[in-house]
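Input record (one chain):
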Amino acid sequence: MNALSLQAKFIRIRSNKLFEIFVISVIIFSALLVGAKTYEMSPTMYHLTQFLDWFISAFFLTEITIRFLAEERKKDFFKNFWNVFDTLIVIVSLIPAEDADLAVIARLVRVFRVLRMISIIPELRILLVSLVKALPQLGYVMLLMFIIFYIYAAIGSTLFENINPDLWGDIAISLLTLFRVMTFEDWTDVMYETMEVYPLSWVFYLTFIFFTAFAFLNMVIGIVVSVMEQENELARKQKAKEDAAEHDLEEEPTLSDLLVHIKGLQQQVEQLGAQTTKQEKK
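The corresponding structure, as predicted from the sequence alone:
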């Protein structure tokens, strides 16, 4: 019973909204602390940041331990990808930053501690999962975009090479120039330069911008939004199942209710027995 009561306390701590907010605050503070270390500071401030860094590491270790102990089946804890992710980040962040050989690795890992925001906030998890699931569909869009890039780069290199070899000298440079055009980085300067020789070259740039910056960008947004809607629907269904299960547990009959129900059944059995005896006598 002591173990069960202790586990119940860990479950309450894990589910407490204030505890979640405090964990998020510590993660944000950890990210700010990493940024503060990039500035020059006095020895006193340096030692203070070292102390705070170890405090944050100890807190994360305690937090992940509480989540592990609150799990009813300990093996299921590591079946969750986000639990494994958090555990790895916490364990690796315990690498001593003072060690010259491991200092760089330790600092990099401490930067990645901010990624724990994703595992803590469900909405961020949905965003990341949606992006990952959208990658296969986005791959075909990217392939089609590369084909359009390659065709326009070949055309640009053929027509505009003599105008400006630095921008259109070969197909690789032409691809970089087209990327500059797609991102609207002084693309009008490139267009006006070629229009001095080919007055209708504006058609080349406008059609390319329409295909890449407008059409393909909207396709990418549409795919990601569609996958996000599916993930949000799955999250709502999962939440509804959890609420229904919790509601069923809350309405589970107590021992006294069961005793009353058993007594009622006994009375019905006795009445049936009495009726049967009377019919046999007749």
